[in-house]
């Protein structure tokens, strides 16, 4: 940027790049500590989660799951056999995204006393961020909270197709008659679940052997089974070789030579950091790279730059990014005041949970929820462990969810310390179980103490007792 007489200079204690949930939480914590804070955002305040990810996707999925639950209940099933009201579901989704307007989020920022700068912010040197003709300097810290973007593969014909990414999938104004979903992870399975129920004929193309490969294998197996029963054409071990749009129709050609036709194609094949055009090169970092950070979220080799949320690639989850933001905000405030930073594990300035207690829920039918290490991850890390499994259908509370309940639970036990390293649940309603598991894993609660955490009857939380009994008796 060429500095002119019109350039406006402003100084703050902290400058936050990105006003999604992560950036908002950093700003909230630094303002609570009395630090002056500027927030820079080029799109909508509230970020990906509010407008194109968590909120719209769950608004689409909630009616789907509610209908599936109702259909399992005798007496209620006949009342919900018809199709979902797609127009009403989409209208409710629009309400959840505030119709893609961020007035409410702006009022919240105003309420905490943070200054908002609209526009594309770039680092232009240490502790300096430029937004248009405005130069913001940070006395203590710049926090990069710019998140990630969808990655599209370099396929022949892709530029002619106008493919969907997660953004188009969660904001579409109508259900396509036929939809190809490429991928086997969370976005792919959730969007296949939603659009199949909302009237699309969905073909799910998965390059690997199964779905949700970052969870226990049975999670992907149960979800794939349910998707197939719902009408999704699930094809594993299948790669897309080329795509084209012929007379308005998308044609995808697979590695086996199959031609699959659809109205739209969604690629849910990975994420990349939004760091390619934020001036990392001006401070000696590689543009477009993930930011390497310590456990206080400070970028390696700096004493003023923080990388918080998806940009550090530790856990690409909104709730985990917000957790990091609380840690980073507290660390920035401590360093600004000259207070000692608590660097010990589980300290106020240490994001220890990123390493061992990351929870996630996949809102498919059935839901899949997990925290901590899978059995394979625990074994690869060198722990001496035992997997303890239980059929969730055998829990009295599961029967209240209706006929034909299918689900499974697993806890991974560290046999040397007799604590839990990981827990996975798959089945209707299990999303609400995962926080109890997170407390057990993060708190390193001994199994001997878990015996005294009595689950209420009849709830599916009784699975905790059954898992402990299975561990004791095996």
Automatic annotation (TrEMBL):
What region holds the FAD/NAD(P)-binding domain?
12-319
Cofactor(s) the protein needs: FAD
Q: Which key words are in the record? A: FAD, Flavoprotein, NAD, Oxidoreductase
Enzyme Commission number, as recorded: 1.-.-.-
Report the GO molecular function annotations.
Answer: oxidoreductase activity
InterPro entries (UniProt xref): Class-I_Pyr_Nuc-Dis_Oxidored, FAD/NAD-bd_sf, FAD/NAD-binding_dom, FAD/NAD-linked_Rdtase_dimer_sf, Pyr_nuc-diS_OxRdtase, Pyr_nucl-diS_OxRdtase_dimer
Limits of the Pyridine nucleotide-disulphide oxidoreductase dimerisation domain: 358-464
Under the heading Pfam families, the entry gives: Pyr_redox_2, Pyr_redox_dim
- Keyword check for rRNA-binding, yes or no: no
The reply on keyword rRNA-binding is no
UniProt similarity note: Belongs to the class-I pyridine nucleotide-disulfide oxidoreductase family.
Q: Which PANTHER family match?
A: DIHYDROLIPOYL DEHYDROGENASE, MITOCHONDRIAL, DISULFIDE OXIDOREDUCTASE
Tell me the protein's name. Answer: NAD(P)/FAD-dependent oxidoreductase
Q: Which organism is it from?
A: Streptomyces justiciae
């Amino acid at each position: 940027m060429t500095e002119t007489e019109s350039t406006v200079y402003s100084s703050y204690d902290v400058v936050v790049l990105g006003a999604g949930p992560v950036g908002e939480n950093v700003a909230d914590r630094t303002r609570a500590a009395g630090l002056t804070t500027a927030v820079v955002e080029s799109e909508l305040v509230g970020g990906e989660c509010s407008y194109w990810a968590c909120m719209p996707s769950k608004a689409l999925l909630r009616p789907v799951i509610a209908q599936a639950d109702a259909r399992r209940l005798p007496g209620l099933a006949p009342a919900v056999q018809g199709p979902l009201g797609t127009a009403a579901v989409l209208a409710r989704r629009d309400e959840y995204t505030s119709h893609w307007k961020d007035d409410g989020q702006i009022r919240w920022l105003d309420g905490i006393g943070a200054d908002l700068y609209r526009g594309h912010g770039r680092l232009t040197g240490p502790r300096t961020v430029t937004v248009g003709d405005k130069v913001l300097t940070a006395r203590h810290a710049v926090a990069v909270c710019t998140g990630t973007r969808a990655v599209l593969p370099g396929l022949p014909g892709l530029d002619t197709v106008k493919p969907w990414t997660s953004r188009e999938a969660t904001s579409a104004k109508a259900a396509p008659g036929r939809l190809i979903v490429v991928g086997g992870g969370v976005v792919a399975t959730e969007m296949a679940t939603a659009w199949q129920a909302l009237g699309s004929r969905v073909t799910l193309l998965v390059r690997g052997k199964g779905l949700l490969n970052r969870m226990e294998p049975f999670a992907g197996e149960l979800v794939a089974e349910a998707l197939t029963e719902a009408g999704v054409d699930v094809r594993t071990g299948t790669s897309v070789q080329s795509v084209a749009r012929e007379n308005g129709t998308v044609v995808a050609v697979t590695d086996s030579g199959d031609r699959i036709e659809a109205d739209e194609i969604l690629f849910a094949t990975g994420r990349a950091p939004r760091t390619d055009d934020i001036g990392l090169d001006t401070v000696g970092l590689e543009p477009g790279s993930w930011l390497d950070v310590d456990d206080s979220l400070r970028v390696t080799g700096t004493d003023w730059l923080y990388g918080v949320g998806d940009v550090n690639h530790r856990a690409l989850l909104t709730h985990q990014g917000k957790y990091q933001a609380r840690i980073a905000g507290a660390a920035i405030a401590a360093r600004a005041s000259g207070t000692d930073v608590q660097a010990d594990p589980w300290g106020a300035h240490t994001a220890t949970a990123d390493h061992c207690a990351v929870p996630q829920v996949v809102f498919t039918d059935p839901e899949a929820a997990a925290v901590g290490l899978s059995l394979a991850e625990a074994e690869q890390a060198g722990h001496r462990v035992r997997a303890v499994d239980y059929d969730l259908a055998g829990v009295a509370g599961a029967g209240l969810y209706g006929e034909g309940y299918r689900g499974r639970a697993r806890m991974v036990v560290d046999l040397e310390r007799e604590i839990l390293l990981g827990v996975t649940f798959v089945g209707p309603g299990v999303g609400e179980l995962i926080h109890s598991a997170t407390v057990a894993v993060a708190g390193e609660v001994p199994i001997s103490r878990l015996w005294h955490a009595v689950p209420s009857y009849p709830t599916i939380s009784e699975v905790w007792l059954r898992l402990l009994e299975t561990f004791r008796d095996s």
